[in-house]
Amino acid sequence: MRPQIVLFGDSITAQSFRSGGWGAALADTYTRKADVVVRGYGGYNTRWALFLLNHLFPMGSATPPVATTIFFGANDAALLGRTGERQHVPIEEYRENLRRIVRHLKNCTPTMLIVLITPPPIDELGRLEFARSLYGDKATELPERTNEMAAVYAKQCVELAEELGLPSINLWSKMQKTEGWQKFLRFVILFTSDRVS
């Protein structure tokens, strides 16, 4: 059996094998070396992810993954009092949940490479425009997520990775270094929504 690389996360991970997706690119890179397995769960936060650990990463497995990406936080950072508040996880709990996920994976096999990925930046205007296109006058005037709050969660993710001696990808920071990143996110939102509905 070939080594496995598991991508564990929310809908951003679930959609990573779509045309041009990061999961598809990773699978292409490792075509002859490893199988890339997607374990993405739309709408999930770190609290709900904890319930999946024993099922996805059972203790005593004869063939645990050689590497796993952990890509949660976009839903955890949803704001209280807004439409996505059921997904909200307080920042302290988010950090502790990530720690628990890492601990579980390391208990499965201490040699597993674990990479933490921060939530991406939020194009607030784009999200509002998208909501209006779906719901018209019923759309909320306030975004359910903000870029400012995504930054707080991204910072905690990077700091935890440093504390645990793990590699991390600061997607929140890296994406915003690209000119026109908001337009790219708007395209992704429209592209994925067409296929979800």
Q: How many helical elements?
A: 9
Radius of gyration: 17 Å
Q: Which percent band covers the strand fraction?
A: 5-15%
Structural class: alpha/beta
CATH topology name: Rossmann fold
Q: Characterize the overall form.
A: globular
Mean pLDDT: 87
| Low confidence ranges | 186-197
What summary fits the major beta sheet? 5 strands, parallel
If strands are numbered along the chain, what order do they take across the biggest sheet?
2-1-3-4-5
CATH class: Alpha Beta
How many extended strands?
Answer: 5
Let me know the CATH homologous superfamily.
Answer: SGNH hydrolase
Tally of domains: 1
In summary, what is this structure?
This is GDSL esterase lipase At5g62930. The chain is of the alpha/beta class.
Describe the structure.
The protein has 197 residues and is an alpha/beta fold. It has a single domain (4-196), classed as Rossmann fold. Helix content is 46%, strand content 12%. It has nine helices and five strands; from the N terminus they run βααβααβαβααβαα. The chain has helices at residues 11-14, 22-29, 46-49, 53-56, 91-108, 124-135, 147-164, 171-176, 181-196; strands spanning 4-9, 35-40, 67-71, 113-117, 168-169. A five-stranded parallel beta sheet has the order 2-1-3-4-5, with helices on both faces. Helix 5 (91-108) packs parallel to helix 7 (147-164). The protein is globular and about 55 Å long. Residues 186-197 have low confidence and may be disordered. Belongs to the 'GDSL' lipolytic enzyme family. This is GDSL esterase lipase At5g62930. GO terms for molecular function: hydrolase activity, acting on ester bonds.
